[in-house]
Amino acid sequence: MADVMTPEQRSRCMAAIKGKNTKPEMIVRKYLFSRGLRYRVNNRKLPGSPDIVLKKYKTVVFIDGCFWHGHEGCKYYQLPKTNVDFWRHKIAMNIARDYANSVDLRLAGWKVIRVWECDIKTKAKREETLERLYHAIVRTERKPSAYESTPSSASIAAEPSTPYSDKKI
């Protein structure tokens, strides 16, 4: 079946698809900021340019669109009826790239969290998803461990002790 749009119309339509600052991203960022978390966005120095980078917690968050990242079983992920092979290949490559970026980030010591667009889209799921996201982030905070000294180790000295005297030498 032929495309119902002219090449110029199709080009304008595809160019309008945003890759950054999408509505789901803005919802997540606004929520995290309101909870007191500070972050950077789209850090190009990290694999995959994560949507949100929380350096303090060594955590990155990706907000993935269900269609573009192949969310199986989701109502928002349905392959177009035309050019199916192209779309199947494109989405498979996106999934492979996402996996490779996640592996690279984990190997570098980052915690990777992925949030699906459908979990943010409806108000019913949004609150629960955002709350779980917040707790998943703050649980990763590294707390300093206290030095423990036992009573027996506190009295050990390198040399035998000698009593002090008030005599001047």
UniProtKB/TrEMBL annotation:
Residues 143-169 are annotated as: Disordered. Keywords: DNA damage, DNA repair, Endonuclease, Hydrolase, Nuclease. One of its GO terms (biological process) is mismatch repair. It holds the Pfam family Vsr. Its EC number is 3.1.-.-. One of its GO terms (molecular function) is endonuclease activity. May nick specific sequences that contain T:G mispairs resulting from m5C-deamination. Belongs to the vsr family. NCBIfam families: vsr (TIGR00632). This is Very short patch repair endonuclease. It comes from Muribaculum intestinale.
